[in-house]
Amino acid sequence: MSDLAPFQPWNDIERRIEAARDGKMTADALMRAIAEADLFIPSDSDVQSDGSGYRPILLEQDDLSLVAVFTAAARMEKGMAPTLMRMNGRAFFLRLPKGFGVIVNPGFEAQIIMAPEGVQALKEDLRAQ
Description:
Layout: H1 12-21, H2 27-36, E1 38-43, E2 58-61, E3 64-69, E4 83-88, H3 89-95, E5 101-104, E6 112-114, H4 116-128
Parallel strand pairs: 3-5
Antiparallel strand pairs: 1-4, 2-3, 5-6
Helix pairs in contact: 1-2
């Protein structure tokens, strides 16, 4: 996977991603931390204050449609999308329709791929809290 960019943590959630990669944090704890963090979500169109107009950037990998999100605005590749919205992870995951996976920080060594089943399990966990 040499085509992935090096990953140096820039904020708290990214330090937690590194901790999980180093085995110092469980995957479940990391998913809860991502749900608590602010995420930066690219959209292929302008997004209104009520969320209307949002068109996700979908990346295909292993026959999965993955919604791209980032843990820092500057991580989004220039030209990937005309709009970047900031949203709490919990709100993002709870609004995400069933059947979509998520890729956090695509293109970086520390990218995280969440299959649709994993996203659904996280949503159920978030609803139970």
